[in-house]
From TrEMBL:
<dbReference type="InterPro" id="IPR012000">
    <property type="entry name" value="Thiamin_PyroP_enz_cen_dom"/>
</dbReference>
<dbReference type="GO" id="GO:0050660">
    <property type="term" value="F:flavin adenine dinucleotide binding"/>
</dbReference>
<dbReference type="InterPro" id="IPR029035">
    <property type="entry name" value="DHS-like_NAD/FAD-binding_dom"/>
</dbReference>
<dbReference type="InterPro" id="IPR012001">
    <property type="entry name" value="Thiamin_PyroP_enz_TPP-bd_dom"/>
</dbReference>
<keyword id="KW-0786">Thiamine pyrophosphate</keyword>
<dbReference type="GO" id="GO:0000287">
    <property type="term" value="F:magnesium ion binding"/>
</dbReference>
<dbReference type="GO" id="GO:0003984">
    <property type="term" value="F:acetolactate synthase activity"/>
</dbReference>
<dbReference type="InterPro" id="IPR045229">
    <property type="entry name" value="TPP_enz"/>
</dbReference>
<comment type="similarity">
    <text>Belongs to the TPP enzyme family.</text>
</comment>
<dbReference type="Pfam" id="PF00205">
    <property type="entry name" value="TPP_enzyme_M"/>
</dbReference>
<feature type="domain" description="Thiamine pyrophosphate enzyme central">
    <location>
        <begin position="251"/>
        <end position="374"/>
    </location>
</feature>
<dbReference type="GO" id="GO:0009097">
    <property type="term" value="P:isoleucine biosynthetic process"/>
</dbReference>
<dbReference type="InterPro" id="IPR029061">
    <property type="entry name" value="THDP-binding"/>
</dbReference>
<dbReference type="Pfam" id="PF02776">
    <property type="entry name" value="TPP_enzyme_N"/>
</dbReference>
<dbReference type="InterPro" id="IPR011766">
    <property type="entry name" value="TPP_enzyme_TPP-bd"/>
</dbReference>
<feature type="domain" description="Thiamine pyrophosphate enzyme TPP-binding">
    <location>
        <begin position="431"/>
        <end position="573"/>
    </location>
</feature>
<dbReference type="GO" id="GO:0009099">
    <property type="term" value="P:L-valine biosynthetic process"/>
</dbReference>
Length: 597
């Protein structure tokens, strides 16, 4: 009989599961004690019940998914456990929602599906979770062994589905296995606990044959003592970094991986007079209204960044928690300072990859631990006054009574009503939606803005806004295009559980990023039009509320109505499609790669 001790993780709440407060207190070594001395004898229980108990002990509070007969034992047990089960309309939506629920709560989230298409439907959202460094446990059903190879309905086995990559570890999953016996449960438990204890992302897949789910557990949980030491730079490396950064002016390039080090980044910047720039995903980690903030880099970024690099000429750049991938840097050589990079990342494979020819001092460390050590080695005050730094330009556009809604006007009013007037999480869908949001919205605190610029799947935020609002326990607002909203939304799920999600739909009757981008690439007359939908009617047909906006003078009242509503709410805004979104750097990158006519 497998017994899960009630106090498995009680002795280390500051490190498991990892959250914003726990990272602040993380110690060089953290132990997970699952010794049998804490266990008690219980009556035999099913594999399904044992797995759900494991998930509870691992800190899971929510499970999102779509039901099915093959997963019924797990599904039923989840529904009658302390874990809050939420039934979604599509498996990809459940996976996207789990990703953003994790970032809103810092707790691992379960996604469950049935066999066959249930699994394949979820894969896009799960791959997004992997790219975003979320912590998600995917539990799926597979065909019972005696039925494999016999064309079972939605058969899930090596006879019908590829095993590599779906049911095995890497590249999609950090850990994946098919549970063929209850005797494997102690090892599964150990692997999940180990993965979740690490500070970076962890996406796991546990496939459980239907007949195994109802088997009784007859294995004891063996004594396991796991330890995890967050990577930290040596004293010698810290001293070298302090020396190099003291030699002259330097810039700080902030990425999403530095989101738990906002306080230390600000201390470092203000002490040393450094200019600070950030990736699109890192907006708000360093306040965008701070006089030392020079702008957002990469996609939809600010011209002020390149001006700063040219005019202020930092000697080096301290890179914190970003891969410097295409959407963050476009690999622009103008971003390389004369003495190169000091690149800090928890993943040793990241530093030097984006700019392989640039001089790079690679430092493997959790960013906050590194900065705490660095601050102790730097002078208390900088030797000179903070230089005047280039800042992003801000221009106000007054609403017009007669024209279609210009996105710039919408963003200005969203800044006032939503960003500054509430604590809502704001997220922007792939397409022109996230171009406008990245460029024009300004955040002063971490955790307020979410965007996916790596995997960048359409449908990510029209669905995941539900998960974010649920675990945030307050408003979450998604800025989305009409194409994404038609593709895969979860308005009905929000209605089912009365989740206060808000969708702001940029309704221009086309895939406008594709339209504008293809024009810039030299391709004319591309098929990008969409029959213009009435999203308010659609929302109300599902039990949500909404309002349609066709004039700029009506925007503010509509946004205010959405923010006070206690129901899921859709703001359907008829956008002027002729306004060119700030996507030029992306198109230039595509043209440089040969995508031109």
């Amino acid at each position: 009989m497998l017994v899960l001790p009630e106090t498995t993780f009680a002795s280390f709440p500051s490190s498991f599961p990892l959250n914003k407060s726990s990272i602040a207190d993380i110690q060089p070594s953290t132990a997970l004690d699952t010794s049998s001395s804490n266990s008690q004898q219980l009556a035999p229980i099913s594999v399904a019940s044992t797995i759900v108990k494991m998930l509870e002990d691992l800190g899971v509070e929510y499970a999102f998914g779509v039901s099915g007969g093959a997963i019924a034992p797990i599904w039923y047990t989840l529904q009658h456990s302390a874990i809050k089960l939420r039934h979604f309309r599509h498996e990809a939506g459940a996976a996207f929602a789990a990703t953003e629920a994790y970032f809103a709560s810092d707790r691992p989230v379960v996604v469950f599906t049935t066999t066959g298409p249930g699994i394949t439907n979820a894969l896009t959202g799960l791959l997004a979770a992997r790219w975003e460094d979320a912590k998600v446990i995917f539990i799926s059903a597979s065909t019972s062994a005696p039925k494999r190879g016999r064309w079972a309905l939605q058969e899930t086995s090596n006879y019908t589905m590829p095993s590599a990559g779906i049911f095995t570890s890497e590249p999609m999953f950090h850990y994946a296995t098919t549970l063929e016996s209850s005797e494997e449960l102690p090892e599964v438990y150990r692997r999940l606990a180990k993965g979740l204890a690490k500070p970076n992302g962890f996406v796991a897949h546990l496939s459980i044959p239907t007949n195994i789910q109802t088997n009784l557990v007859e294995t004891s949980l063996t004594s396991v003592n796991l330890s995890f030491t967050p990577p930290t730079a040596s004293e010698e490396v810290i001293l070298e970094c302090a020396k190099l950064l003291s030699e002259g002016p330097f810039a700080i390039w902030v990425g999403f991986g530095a989101r738990l080090a906002a306080k230390e980044i600000r201390q470092l910047a203000e002490r040393m007079g450094a200019g600070v720039m950030c990736s699109p995903r890192a907006k708000g980690i360093f306040p965008e209204d701070h006089p030392q903030f020079v702008g957002v880099t990469g996609f939809a970024g600010h011209d002020s960044v390149l001006k700063y690099m040219q005019e202020s000429r930092p000697l080096r750049t301290l890179v914190l928690g970003t891969r410097l991938g295409e959407f963050t840097s476009f690999w622009n050589p103008a971003m390389i300072p004369s003495r190169g990079f000091l690149h800090v990342d928890i993943d040793p494979e990241v530093p030097g990859t984006a700019y392989p020819s640039a001089e790079t001092l690679a430092i493997q460390s959790e960013v906050r631990i590194f900065l705490k050590a660095l601050l102790k080695r730097l002078p208390k005050r900088h030797r000179s006054k903070i230089q005047s730094l280039t800042r992003p330009e801000r221009s106000a556009i007054n609403p017009n009574q007669d024209s279609l809604v210009r996105p710039e006007v919408l963003m200005n009013l969203m800044q006032r009503v939503i960003v500054e007037g509430s604590d809502a999480i704001v997220m922007a869908e792939g397409g022109n939606s996230f171009a406008w949001a990245i460029n024009l919205l300004r955040f002063t605190k971490p955790g307020r803005f979410r965007v996916s610029t790596g995997f960048g799947a359409m449908g990510h935020f029209v669905t995941s806004v539900v998960g974010a609002a649920l675990t945030h326990q307050g408003k979450a607002v998604a800025i989305v295009g009409d194409g994404a909203m038609l593709m895969n939304n979860e308005v009905s799920t929000a209605v089912s559980y009365q989740i206060p999600a808000v969708w702001i739909v940029l309704n221009d009757g086309r895939y406008n990023m594709c339209h504008q981008g293809s024009q810039m690439q030299g391709y004319k007359d591309m098929d990008v039009d969409i029959p213009q939908a009435d999203f308010v009617m659609l929302a109300r047909s599902m039990g949500a509320d909404g309002i349609r906006v066709e004039r700029e003078s009506d925007i503010q009242a509509a946004l205010e109505l959405a923010m006070v509503s206690t129901r899921p709410f859709v703001v359907d805004i008829v956008i002027d499609p002729s306004r060119l979104a700030p996507i030029g750097t992306r198109i230039s990158s595509l043209i440089s790669q040969g995508a031109k006519n």
